[in-house]
């Protein structure tokens, strides 16, 4: 299925209440890899409610945040008291900017939603970067390759998306001729499944299935997630990969 605007319309309202979105350590790790500078012009693709754009803005000259969802952008715009951010509607697979426009391009948690043409979306980021410019990309991944199928099945009850492993993300960056492709892992410890499901536009029936899948996961899977099941919630360690690459 192509981009589901209705899905983002439902998600926009509660997006900023998601625990992972607000984990300072994750945002800080992402920003650290970008090595930002006051002279930099930055493009944040799939900016959503602007979390990364607002974090980067004080460190750089200007941030342009683009997103396909006008509902997500409306939430980004309503917080905008900062003069050096511009939000625009746009698709990462077809950027309207000239070649070599930006010093940095950032993309946090976007590409798993790009069901068709993710490779084109990476090529576009490469195209609009200046020579020696950096691309910073991050995605949530399963705790290990053994859990890939379980993870994909479980997520299918929440949203239509792609599952990446670390190696897939590195390969995606290399496929667009980026060099010096490096990656880091950020573990977000003890994340509440309840928070994640209640702020993610998931139907009650599917929430119940996802909770049951966690409860029924085998011992090795539970260990990999460092899972703690309490009376009214389940806590897991979420794994995020952050890739930096140079044009
Ligand atoms: C999980 S949110 C991430 C938002 C933000 N980057 C963050 O870290 O909080 C994913 C965002 O990607 C946007 N998106 C999905 N496909 C896109 C595309 N092809 N082009 C631009 N934005 C896209 C969605 O509308 C959504 O706002």
Outline the structure in words.
The model has no long low-confidence stretch (mean pLDDT 94). Helix 1 packs parallel to helix 5. Strands 1, 2, 3, 4, 5, 6, 7 and 8 form an 8-stranded mixed β-sheet that branches. Helix 4 links the parallel strand 1 and strand 2. The chain contains 11 helices and 8 strands. The chain is α/β, with parallel strands linked by helices. It has a single domain, classed as Vaccinia Virus protein VP39 (Rossmann fold). The site of S-adenosylmethionine (SAM) has 21 residues, from helix 4.
* Reported CATH architecture: 3-Layer(aba) Sandwich
Strand content: 25-35%
The CATH topology is Rossmann fold
**Tally of separate domains:** 1
Under CATH, the homologous superfamily reads Vaccinia Virus protein VP39
Total number of β-strand segments? Answer: 8
Please tell me what the overall shape is.
globular
Ions, cofactors and other ligands present here are: S-adenosylmethionine
Estimate the mean pLDDT confidence: 94
Number of helices: 11
Order of helices and strands: HHHEHEHEEHEHHEHHHEE
Structural class by sheet pairing and helices: alpha/beta
Percent helix range: 25-40%
Distance between the termini: 31 Å
The biggest beta sheet, please? Answer: 8 strands, mixed
**CA-based gyration radius:** 18 Å
């Amino acid at each position: 299925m192509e981009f589901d605007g209705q899905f983002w319309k439902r998600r926009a309202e509660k997006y900023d209440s998601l625990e992972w979105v607000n984990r300072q350590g994750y945002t800080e790790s992402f920003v650290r890899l970008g090595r930002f500078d006051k002279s930099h012009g930055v493009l944040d693709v799939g900016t959503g409610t602007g979390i990364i754009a607002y974090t980067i803005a004080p460190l750089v000259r200007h941030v342009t945040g683009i997103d396909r969802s006008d509902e997500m952008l409306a939430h980004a715009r309503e917080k905008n008291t900062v003069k050096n951010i511009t939000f625009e509607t746009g698709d990462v697979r077809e950027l309207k900017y000239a070649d070599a426009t930006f010093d940095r391009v950032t993309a946090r948690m976007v590409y798993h939603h790009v069901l068709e043409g993710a490779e084109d979306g990476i090529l576009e980021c490469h195209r609009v970067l200046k020579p020696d410019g950096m691309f910073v990309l991050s995605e949530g991944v399963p705790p290990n390759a053994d859990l890939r199928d379980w993870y994909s099945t479980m997520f299918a009850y929440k949203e239509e998306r792609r599952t990446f492993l670390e190696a897939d993300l590195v390969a995606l960056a290399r496929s667009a001729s980026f060099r010096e492709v490096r990656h880091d892992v950020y573990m977000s410890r003890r994340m509440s499944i309840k928070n994640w499901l209640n702020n993610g536009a998931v139907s009650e029936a599917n929430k119940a299935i996802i909770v049951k899948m966690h409860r029924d996961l085998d011992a090795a899977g539970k260990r990999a997630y460092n899972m703690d099941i309490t009376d009214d919630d389940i806590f897991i360690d979420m794994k995020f990969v952050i890739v930096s690459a140079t044009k």
